[in-house]
Design brief:
The protein has one domain. The protein starts with a strand and ends in a 12-residue tail after the last helix. Helices cover 24% and strands 24% of the residues. Strands 1-2 form a two-stranded antiparallel sheet. A two-stranded antiparallel ribbon has the order 3-4. A hairpin with a 6-residue loop joins β1 and β2. The structure holds zinc ion (ZN).
C-alpha cells in the first residue's frame, strides 16, 4: 500500500489510477483531485502540510 500524500488515504499501487512522479519517486492518489493538488504544490504535501519555513521565494 502507498499513501496518498494529499489526503492520507491508503492507495493500492497495483490498482491506482492516478499517480505522479516527483523527484524520481512515484506517488499515488485516490482521486484526480488529489493528484491535481499535489502537482500544483508538491512540496506542501511532502513536508507534512503547514510548515511555514519556506523562505525561498523572491
Ligand atoms: Zn486522496
Amino acid at each position: 500500500m502507498a499513501v496518498d500524500p494529499v489526503c492520507g488515504m491508503d492507495v493500492d499501487e497495483k490498482t491506482a489510477q492516478w499517480k505522479s512522479e516527483y523527484k524520481g519517486k512515484t506517488y499515488y492518489f485516490c482521486a484526480p483531485g488529489c493528484k491535481a493538488s499535489f502537482e500544483k504544490d508538491p512540496e506542501k504535501y511532502l513536508h507534512g502540510g503547514d510548515h511555514h519555513e519556506h523562505h525561498g521565494h523572491h
